[in-house]
Amino acid sequence: MPEQLWLPGLEAPPTPTDGLFFAVFPDTNTAANISKLAQQLCEEARVRSRPLAANRLHVTLHHLGIFAGGLPQARVDAAMQAAGSVRMAPFSVEFDTVASFASKPRPGPLVLTGSEGVGGLHRLHDALTGALHDSGIESRAGSAAMAYTPHVTLAYGLPWAAARPVEPVCWNVRGFALIHSLLGRTRHIVLARWPLEGAAL
C-alpha cells in the first residue's frame, strides 16, 4: 500500500468542538408532544434513528460559527450585545408540515416546517440579522445567499420522503436564547436568555 503523502507545514485543521447559535425553544408540554410525534415518525419509517430528546428540540434563529478549543469570548460578547438590542413583542408559531432535509439517496434530517404560521420567526430572525450586523457579526444564516427556513429537527438519518401535513404544533414564543453547542456530545448550554417585550422567562 503506498504511503500517504505528507508535506511539512500542511497540517490537518483542528477538529471543531464548539458551536454558537441563537435559538427559540418550545415550552415543556409542546416539546413533549413534538417528541412523541418524532418517535411515531421514526417507527413508521422503520429505521433505527432515534428522535431528538425533548429538551434539545428548538428552532435555530442564527448560526454564529463552529470553533475548535472553545468559543471566542469576543464573539460571544458581541452576540450578547446584539441580542440585548432586539425589541419585539411575543408571538405564536405554528408548524404544520413534516419534511425531509435529506438528499436522495442519502438519509438526512426529518423536520417540522410551516408557512404562514412561522412569520414571527422570520421577523425575529430579521431583527437579529440587523442587530448582529451592527455589532460586527455576519452570521451564516444572515447571508443573502442563504434563505432562512424556520424548522424543528425531529431526527437525523431518515430516508428522503415527500413533505406531508401533520396536526399543527403551536406555541407562544416569549423569548430566545444564545446556545453553546458541545459538538459530538449532544449537549446544549444556554449562555443567556432574552425575553421579548412583555414576556418573562
Explain the overall architecture.
By secondary structure, the chain is an alpha+beta fold. It has one domain: Cyclic Phosphodiesterase, Chain: A (Alpha-Beta Complex), CATH 3.90.1140.10. Helices cover 23% and strands 33% of the residues. It contains three helices and eight strands. It has helices at residues 28-45, 73-84, 119-134, and strands spanning 18-24, 59-67, 91-100, 108-113, 152-158, 164-173, 175-182, 187-195. The strands form two sheets. A four-stranded antiparallel sheet has the order 2-1-7-8, with helices on one face. Helix 2 (73-84) crosses helix 3 (119-134).
Short description:
By secondary structure, the protein is an alpha+beta fold. The protein has a single domain, classed as Cyclic phosphodiesterase (Cyclic Phosphodiesterase, Chain: A). The protein has helices at residues 28-45, 73-84, 119-134, and strands spanning 18-24, 59-67, 91-100, 108-113, 152-158, 164-173, 175-182, 187-195.
Spans of 5+ residues with little confidence (pLDDT < 50)? 1-6, 141-145
The main sheet orders its strands as: 2-1-7-8
Number of domains: 1
Q: What is the residue-averaged pLDDT? A: 87
CATH architecture: Alpha-Beta Complex
Rg measurement, Å:
19 Å
Cα shape = globular
Report the top-level CATH class: Alpha Beta
- Which fold name corresponds to the CATH topology? Cyclic Phosphodiesterase, Chain: A
Number of helices: 3
Largest sheet: 4 strands, antiparallel
Percent in helix: 10-25%
Give the N-terminus to C-terminus distance in angstroms: 60 Å
Instruction: Please count the beta strands (DSSP E, at least 2 residues each).
Output: 8
CATH homology superfamily name: Cyclic phosphodiesterase
> What is the string of SSEs from the N terminus onward?
EHEHEEHEEEE
State the oligomer.
single chain
Please identify the structural class as seen in this structure.
alpha+beta
**Residue share in β-strands:** 25-35%
